[in-house]
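2024-03-11 09:14:02 DEBUG pipeline.ingest accepted 1 chain
2024-03-11 09:14:02 DEBUG pipeline.ingest length=494
2024-03-11 09:14:03 DEBUG pipeline.predict start
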Amino acid sequence: MRIAIAGISHETNSYCQANTFVDDFYQLRGDKFLATFNQESDIGGAVAACHRMDVTPVPILFVSAQPSGIIDHGTYQRFKSEIIEGLAAATDIDGVVLCLHGAGVVDGIEDLEGDLCRSVREVFGAGFPITASFDLHGNITQSMADALDGMFACHHYPHIDLHERAAEAVELAVRIRRESLTTATWVTTVPMLLPTTTTFIDPGKRRLRMMLEAEQEAGVIDVSWFHGFPYTDVGHIGCYIVVTTEGDAAQARRIGTRLAHGLWADRELFRPDSLSAADAVTAAMQASRPSTGAAAPIVIHETSDNCGGGAPGDGTHLLRAMLDAEMPNACFGFIVDAETAGQAHSAGVGARINIRLGGKTDDLHGDSLILDAYVKALHDGRITLQAMFRGAPLNLGPMARLQPVDSDMDIIVVSRRSQTFDAEPFLALGMDVLRYRYVALKSSNHFRAGFQDLAAQIITADPPGLTTHHIEVFPRQRTSQPLWPIDDRAEFNP
């Protein structure tokens, strides 16, 4: 048996100023594609599942980019054409598995995934197994679901199970072929703009447990809770329960509607408490160590400048507040600033340099910091992730460990956009996060996979930024229905 694997994965923040083009995507083909089998990523999980099931994986094309602005129309058409033509030319394939995101927006096409899935279905027609895995931050349509035989969103945020959900997509495609199985998928949309909500703690943890319990009912293949992606302006935005069954559409609709009613009833539990940068720093400095006396840092995460949601990563609000407060034994990992990182590499370890750090993308994320800094360590920025996406390479570009001359704070500066997933960037520059009292970073929730178990306490800083919890600040021109929490008229009528 042969299963073709392909995908386009992009989380589109339509409020970003610049569009996203071909060169912004990394692209996997052929042997490079197949070599991902030992990585805990969606593509790696799909390839590994094929190997486990004695199925031949047929790589077509997979492309992905850091979350960013709307995708250029020509860029999307170029990738889509390669996938469609590759699938049409593939011989003797028995099914297709797509690795997608769910929140892709193209200039002129609001629903990237729906457009791609329908186009793939047109190649093969009805009855041919086509399944897909997704990020749970997808904005989902029934049209998208109707083109597929099964939809598998990762259950967790941080997304520690993308590889497992992609494996399930492969398993279902194989089962459909071998058993002549018929499936039904139903999408229930809830009019909510859900803030970035982790499933590691309540209320997200409790709600996920209910979804997984519903999945145990006989005849149910999968229950996926798509949180949606609120940082984009499309007509189908919301929160979604997607249920796939063994052909029983009424069962899928019943389960999805029940779970959606429960989510709606609990909506106020998901309203976030946001702290300014200064208040977050004050809260961290007032916190005490655990009674055990064990070494454990207090982690402050700047959720509003999360590259993983489309923000630039060069915001200075939190770092400025930390410097103003003269936080002792603190580190910041990291600021995205290729110019400053390059300046440090040119000067070399041991040099003292005057820098203009961060604040170079826009005015929203704070002004640049003018600092005299000592270059303590340098690194090429090539690391291997150890928590979420375990085993996958990440290239942060040239990076530096800097220390302002009038402070003992260590500041990591990198060249390429990314959020902080785990402690690897710190270790690469000789920093043990367990030896710091305060560790600051930029991420909404993915950092929890690497930091939750080692942190004494986690504090959220939410100054102005493109991924703020204050989603009411973003204008909505494409949405036709009232949405919670930005409109008191919002009602759930499935």
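2024-03-11 09:14:41 DEBUG pipeline.report Residues 349 and 375 are 5 Å apart (CA to CA).
2024-03-11 09:14:41 DEBUG pipeline.predict end
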